[in-house]
Amino acid sequence: MKKFNYILLSSLIVSTAMTACNDDDKSELEIPAPIKVTNGSGTNTTNPDNPNPPSTEEYEEIANTKADFIYGCDPSWVTLMEQKDIKFYNSEGKETECLELLKTIGFNAARFRVWVNPSSEEGINGLCNIDDVIEKCKRAKAQGMKIMIDFHYSDTWADPSKQFKPAAWDNLSQDELANKVYSYTKESLEKIKNAGINVTWVQIGNETKTGMMTKQSDKTTEATNANGGLSNTNGNFAILCNQANKAAKEVFLACKTVVHIQNGQIESDAVYAAKLLKQHNANYDILGVSLYPDFKVSNWYSTYIDECIKNLNTIAQECNKDVMVCELGTESIATWNGQRAIINSVLRMREEVERCLGVFYWEPEAYNSFNKYNKGGFLASGKPADALKVFSGNYNYLLPENDPNANADADVLHIAARTGEELGTLEKQEDGTYSGTLTEIKANLEFTVTDKDGNKYGPINWNKPTAGETASMQKAAGDYDHFWFWATADGNYDYTLTFDIKNLTYKYTSNE
Question: Which of 113, 299, 461, 481 lies deepest, with the highest CB count within 10 Å?
Answer without folding.
Answer: 113
